[in-house]
Write a structure and sequence with these properties.
By secondary structure, the protein is mainly alpha-helical. It has eight helices and two strands, in the order βααααααααβ.
């Protein structure tokens, strides 16, 4: 990139940048806690109280993640041009844009974008889809495992034995619960837990690919992609494809 001929453009507004870093920290903490829970026996964490404690902290970070994601979903209709869904999610003309971008990369003169390039749009779309799956499945497991909102009270009312206070039943404790309904609950939440785990693995893989290509693009093409998530500004020595 010819730095003497570079032009700086304002791209990402403050809410988009805040979402990005809050989401990064929340997802990182959720992955670490999730891996600790999966390997709890190997790590010597075997007590029920410790298991509930880990799950509770995981759920709390899950609430932060879910709230941040929901705010971003709404903000995607009000953000500046490059933060709006119509400029991020694949739509009309996307296939042609992708072909043009890939041809430019192969030619050694990659097109420059202020927003996400076509590959970046695919990556973001896939990550958003997986995060939505994680949010929904995680909230369901929070309710079915430790009776946390928004579904916890409904689940407790469903599994409680007649004449027993739903508020008195405890996670991973059969006391006060109806055995038949608990079996049905386990059959219901089991597949959701599998979806949650495998979607998490897929999300981790996509995130690593995303980071790799962001760094690669930064090194080979410049543009300040990484710094733009701090400053909101990108620089380019070519006219961006998506400037108008």
């Amino acid at each position: 990139m010819n730095t003497e001929q570079c032009t700086k453009y304002r791209v990402w507004d403050l809410p988009v940048r805040l979402f990005h870093w809050i989401n990064f920290l929340a997802v990182f903490c959720l992955i670490v806690l999730g891996l600790i829970m999966l390997w709890s026996k190997e790590l010597g964490i075997t007590g029920i109280e410790a298991k509930i404690g880990l799950k509770t902290v995981h759920v709390i970070f899950g609430y932060i993640f879910a709230t941040n994601l929901l705010v971003r979903l709404v903000w995607g209709f009000f953000a500046n041009r490059y933060g709006r869904w119509r400029d991020i999610l694949p739509g009309r003309g996307f296939v042609a844009s992708l072909r043009g971008y890939m041809a430019s990369v192969r030619s050694g003169e990659p097109q420059q974008y202020l927003g996400h390039n076509p590959l970046g749009r695919l990556s973001v779309t896939l990550m958003l889809t997986l995060m939505l799956v994680q949010m929904v499945s995680g909230l369901v497991r929070a309710g079915t495992d430790i009776y946390y909102p928004p579904f916890g009270s409904f689940v407790a009312d469903y599994v409680v034995e007649e004449g027993f206070d739903p508020a008195a039943i405890k996670p991973y404790d059969a006391a006060g619960t109806n055995p038949q309904r608990m079996e049905k609950l386990k059959a219901f939440k089991g597949p959701i837990g599998e979806v949650h785990i495998y979607a998490a693995y897929t999300l981790m893989f996509i995130i690593l690919l995303h980071i790799f290509f962001v760094i690669r693009t930064e090194v080979t093409q410049g543009g300040g992609i990484i710094s733009a998530m701090f400053t909101g500004k990108k620089v380019t020595d070519k006219k961006p494809v998506d400037l108008n």
